[in-house]
Amino acid sequence: MSEHYHAVVWIDHREARVFHFSATEADEHVVHPHDPTVHIHHHANSIGSGHASEDQKFLHQVAAAVANSKAVLITGPSTAKHELVKHIEHHDPQQAKTIAGVEALDHPTNGELLAHARKFFRAADRMSPQK
Question: Which of 19, 53, 79, 83 is the most exposed place for a label (fewest CB within 10 A)?
Answer without folding.
Answer: 53
